[in-house]
Specification:
By secondary structure, the chain is of the alpha+beta class. It contains nine helices and four strands; from the N terminus they run αααααβαββαβαα. The longest helix is centred in the last third of the chain and has 22 residues, at about 225-245.
């Protein structure tokens, strides 16, 4: 009996890492709640950009808000709206990408989502060790692009400043490699390239979209058992990230 239970637990842990994305967790949002969240997003953008004049200045304000006021964390619901991300107050690449893109659109700056394949090295030290061991390789990474001065530029705000500095201090994730330690997370109208982009898989074509449809389609194509097990791995990784990695 004990042997069977142990085998079941091991199989369960293996299944948690087989999928490279998190899942849609069905939650009903009433029309009233949706209106409140929408107003909150507009009000937040207005407050953030109140003292800015040019599109670049407004974009800079939005970038730093998403970068630092929405700390990087793992959530078991990937397909959240910008309003839901704002209300949650934290998130990983796809959450922060959606929020930044929608905020940019609020001030009239064209924005889109860029999906790219990266190796699991992008999440090394951030995921719980067991989740990392079984994580899909490669997996789909998401970041926003905005149009400034007539050009599409990356505006990735995935890692908040606190986490970025912790990783540098501890020599974790991108900071394991000397040539990556000088990556900048400061705003630039020519674009901001995130650390995760440095692990891009060569030969994989990028996908551009206005929403998370590519991610949704990927999730829907997963076998049911992968959908059921993966959120547990993300919740465990959230605990690892906040209790171990962020700990001084």
């Amino acid at each position: 009996m004990k042997k069977s239970l142990k085998s079941f637990v091991i199989v369960g842990m293996v299944l948690t890492g087989l999928a490279g994305c998190s899942l849609l967790k069905p939650e009903f949002v009433s029309a009233r709640e949706a209106r409140i969240m929408e107003n909150s997003l507009k009000e937040t953008v207005n407050n953030i950009t109140r003292d800015a004049n040019t599109p670049e200045e407004k974009m800079e304000k939005i970038f730093y808000f998403v970068r630092d006021q929405i700390p990087f964390d793992f959530l078991d619901n990937s397909l959240m709206s910008a309003e839901e991300v704002l209300a949650t107050g934290r998130g990983s690449c796809m959450h922060k990408a959606v929020l930044l893109a929608e905020m940019a659109k609020e001030i009239g700056i064209p924005a889109r989502l860029h999906f790219m394949w990266v190796t699991k090295e992008a999440l090394r030290d951030l995921l719980h060790p067991m989740s990392y061991f079984f994580w899909a390789n490669p997996f789909l990474h998401t970041y926003p692009e905005v149009k400034l001065d007539g050009k599409w530029v990356p505006m990735e705000a995935t890692f908040d400043r606190e986490l970025h500095e912790i990783l540098l201090k501890k020599g974790l994730n991108f900071a394991r490699y000397p040539e990556r330690r000088d990556i900048s997370i400061q705003f630039s109208k020519s674009g901001v390239i995130g650390a995760q982009q440095l692990t891009a898989v060569k030969g994989k074509e990028p996908i551009y979209a206005d929403d998370l449809t590519p991610l949704r389609e990927m999730i829907e194509s997963l076998p049911w058992f992968k959908k059921r097990m993966h959120p547990w791995a993300l919740r465990r990784s959230s605990g690892w990230l906040n209790q171990e990695v962020r700990k001084p």
